[in-house]
Design brief:
Length: 379
């Protein structure tokens, strides 16, 4: 994939991104390109070009497939672009740089331009984006790296039940889930594998650095109230980052966000502002379909289990922990720790194993679905 922002700037083109419409334009005297993020087509000087993979928006950078981009730019600027695989100056896992035979940008100028892109964008992007990279971004490549995020930890116990803390349940299930996924051939990373405190904003950063394909944050739900209310309110629910449609979902996100803040998470706030939503709009759109597909798979895999779904089983809200993830990301509320029956089940070995197995199965099903989708693109 090519970092289209950097390449455009190198060639003196002006770029515009409209995050809400997901529309991207790069324009100049020689070349005018426009496309919609997430679609495998690009309009270059009036001609539609089919791309091998969809365009994507990741790490606040627009990426387009290498081969076609180099051809389009090559034609427009009468240059022959070649990929220099030996350049190690760019900060990336698979450092690659583009050089052109007509005008060979020095390695430092490439590094400079890519870091200026990162600087002008949101602070979520930690590293300077490379100009070219080997791997396609999450959601448009095979699913391999799964990041499991056991919620809370250390001084932050999460929700507190009669006999247990949320942080211990989710860690135990995460470890079992890791085992299941590794046995299926996935690469797995846990944001924490011990009882330690991690800031909410740090968790997706770990996933980004590790090149995750899917981010799953595990939690237990809870409500306040009398015995009868606690007994009545139960079930699992899976969330994507989306403007909440119900007050109930908004409250759940507020609780998860607030807990972190209470225990010293400085970057966390209870609710996302309209500006926050706008800033992440393009990224959310990018991963929406994949996140929804995974959500469907989890709901399906949970069918017939001890803990049944709460309502439709799925919802959307402004969970801080999902905000920084540059990959399909979901938050699973395994069940209610405030419900005595579900708390007992979530603490039992049988229950934990069963929940881990069901989520692992949904990851496998999600991979299958994405593989099918990628196959249709290559035809
Ligand atoms: Zn939680």
């Amino acid at each position: 994939m090519v970092n289209l922002d950097s390449l455009s700037k190198e060639e003196g083109l002006k770029t515009h991104l409209q995050p809400v419409e997901r529309h991207f334009k790069t324009e100049g005297k020689e070349l005018s390109c426009s496309f919609v993020l997430g679609f495998p087509y690009i309009f270059a000087n009036g001609n539609a070009v089919k791309l091998s993979t969809p365009t994507v928006f990741e790490n606040d950078v627009v990426w387009t497939p290498l081969e076609e981009t180099v051809e389009i730019f090559g034609k427009a600027f009468s240059k022959k672009y070649t990929v220099d695989t030996t350049a190690k100056l760019l900060k990336t896992d698979s450092p690659l740089a583009v050089s052109s035979s007509a005008k060979k940008p020095s390695s430092s100028s490439v590094a400079k331009s890519s870091s200026s892109v990162a600087k002008s964008s949101s602070s979520v992007a930690e590293k300077a984006a490379p100009l070219v990279r080997k791997n396609a971004p999450a959601g448009s490549r095979e699913v391999r790296n799964i990041v499991i995020d056991p919620g809370h930890g250390g001084k932050d116990p999460g929700a507190i039940g009669l006999i247990s803390n949320e942080k211990d349940i989710v860690l135990a299930v995460s470890k079992l889930l890791e085992k299941e996924l590794v046995a299926m051939g996935f690469h797995v990373k846990l944001t924490r594998s011990t009882d330690k405190f991690i800031q909410l904003s740090e968790r997706p950063q770990i996933a980004n650095k590790w090149n995750g394909d899917l981010f799953i944050s595990l939690h237990c739900n809870a409500i306040d109230g009398n015995k009868a209310r606690k007994k009545k309110t139960k079930g699992f629910r899976i969330y994507v980052l989306r403007d909440p449609e119900s007050e109930e979902d908004r409250a759940i996100a507020r609780r998860e966000n607030k807990v972190a803040k209470t225990y010293g998470d400085k970057n966390s706030k209870e609710e996302l502002s309209p500006l926050d939503w706008l800033k992440i709009q393009a990224r959310l759109e990018q991963y929406k379909q994949a996140s929804y597909t995974f959500t469907e798979k989890v709901i399906k895999a949970y069918e017939g289990g001890k803990i049944s779904k709460m309502g439709s089983g799925a919802g959307g809200a402004g969970f801080m922990v999902l905000v920084g993830a540059f990959m399909p990301a979901t938050l699973v509320e395994l069940g209610f720790i405030s419900n005595p029956e579900e708390e007992l089940y979530m603490n039992s070995e049988k229950g934990q194993k069963d929940m881990a197995k069901r989520i692992a199965k949904s990851v496998q099903e999600y991979k299958k679905a994405l593989d099918e989708y990628l196959k249709t693109l290559s035809h």
